[in-house]
């Protein structure tokens, strides 16, 4: 076994030990196929008010501009599918936001993995990324064989569907590289048909500025009135395209205690949400991604749904 292969195996078994669902490795190089797609996405204003997406165009496509002399992108998936869900007929929160903000959880695991690489292999430089820098996570995960990008533009795996976070380490060490997998969406259009705001404008293209997640999290202004009655009770994020996806029947509950929800969260009724106070909001969402929308933002979303 050559050293590249040995190091790759070492890294993958440590990733598993740290609780990652899977780990794949690809060569750090310019993402040629993604460049025109990203350009079109921005040109057509599909990012809405997420202006940060216009920044660092070249860095998004070239990992060597983020980590000098980088050789490998190590992609990792972390399952967040919950064992229990919110009660029926209530205002809904995207499942990824039930527990502690994933940025904290994954960053710690990534740091541990980088430390492990440095201790076991030697002087390796790199950076950890989880949705927090201009990195095209899903493109790298697909490139390294962890799954394929589905028609809803999320990364899908045959073993566990799409309820997982994607993260990566970009390092200056040459490793053994994995090959991409094939697309298994076939002729299925369930995600496209189910989206109430028609955000999936064509297979593999999502207009972010029409997505319920965008309206309930990213948009700071008033939600456009033409979307009234189309939110299907989603007040933070939206899982519709994932919930209807046939591959998600293979989702298994995560085993990360930090992703478990506050004990009161799952049983809250519509009335409870409508009467929520700032103190209850703070208690429920101390370290949760829901803090991003702030108390006022959540109230705005609830009122918008109620009025619909």
Automatic annotation (TrEMBL):
Main site of residence? Answer: cytoplasm
**UniProt: cob(II)alamin binding residues:** 60, 131, 155, 213, 238-239
> Mind listing the UniProt keywords for this protein, alphabetically?
4Fe-4S, Cobalamin, Cobalt, Cytoplasm, Iron, Iron-sulfur, Metal-binding, Oxidoreductase, Queuosine biosynthesis, tRNA processing
What GO cellular component term, any one, is given?
cytoplasm
Q: Which domain of life is it from?
A: Bacteria
Q: Which reaction equation describes what this protein catalyses? A: epoxyqueuosine(34) in tRNA + AH2 = queuosine(34) in tRNA + A + H2O
- The UniProt record gives the binding positions of [4Fe-4S] cluster 1 as 185, 188, 191, 245
The record's section on InterPro entries has: 4Fe4S_Fe-S-bd, 4Fe4S_Fe_S_CS, QueG, QueG_DUF1730
**Glycosyltransferase in keyword set:** no
Q: Where does the chain bind tRNA?
A: 220
Protein residues bound to [4Fe-4S] cluster 2: 195, 211, 238, 241
- Explain how, and how many, cofactor molecules are bound: Binds 2 [4Fe-4S] clusters per monomer.
In its UniProt record, a GO molecular function of this protein is: 4 iron, 4 sulfur cluster binding
Which cofactor names does the annotation list? [4Fe-4S] cluster; cob(II)alamin
Q: Which family does it belong to?
A: Belongs to the QueG family.
Give a short account of what the protein does.
Catalyzes the conversion of epoxyqueuosine (oQ) to queuosine (Q), which is a hypermodified base found in the wobble positions of tRNA(Asp), tRNA(Asn), tRNA(His) and tRNA(Tyr).
Q: Which NCBIfam families match?
A: tRNA epoxyqueuosine(34) reductase QueG
How this chain assembles, per its entry, is:
Monomer.
Which named protein is this? Epoxyqueuosine reductase
Q: Which gene encodes it?
A: queG
């Amino acid at each position: 076994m050559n050293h590249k292969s040995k190091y790759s195996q070492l890294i993958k078994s440590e990733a598993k030990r740290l609780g990652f669902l899977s780990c794949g490795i690809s060569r750090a190089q310019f993402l040629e196929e993604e460049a025109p797609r990203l350009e079109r996405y921005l040109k057509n204003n599909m990012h809405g008010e997420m202006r940060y997406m216009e920044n660092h165009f070249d860095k998004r496509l070239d990992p060597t501009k983020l980590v000098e002399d980088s050789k490998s992108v190590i992609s990792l998936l972390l399952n967040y599918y919950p064992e229990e869900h919110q009660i029926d007929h209530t205002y809904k929160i995207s499942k990824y936001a039930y527990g502690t903000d994933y940025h904290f959880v994954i960053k710690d695991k990534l740091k541990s993995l980088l430390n492990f690489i440095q201790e076991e292999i030697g002087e390796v430089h790199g950076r950890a990324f989880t949705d927090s820098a201009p990195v095209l996570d899903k493109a790298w995960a697909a490139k390294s064989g962890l799954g394929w990008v589905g028609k809803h533009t999320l990364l899908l795996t045959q073993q566990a569907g799409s309820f997982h976070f994607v993260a990566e380490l970009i390092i200056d060490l040459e490793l053994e590289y994995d090959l991409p997998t094939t697309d298994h969406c076939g002729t299925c259009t369930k995600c496209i048909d189910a989206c109430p705001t028609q955000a999936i404008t064509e297979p593999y293209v999502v207009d972010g500025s029409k997505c319920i997640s965008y309206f309930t999290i990213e948009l700071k202004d008033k939600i456009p009135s033409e979307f009234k009655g189309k939110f299907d009770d989603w007040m933070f994020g939206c899982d519709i395209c994932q919930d209807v996806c046939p591959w998600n029947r293979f989702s298994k509950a995560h085993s990360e205690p930090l992703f478990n929800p506050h004990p009161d969260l799952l049983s809250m009724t519509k009335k409870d949400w409508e009467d929520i106070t700032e103190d209850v909001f703070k208690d429920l969402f101390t370290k949760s991604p829901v803090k991003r929308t702030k108390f006022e933002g959540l109230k705005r979303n609830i009122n918008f749904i109620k009025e619909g």
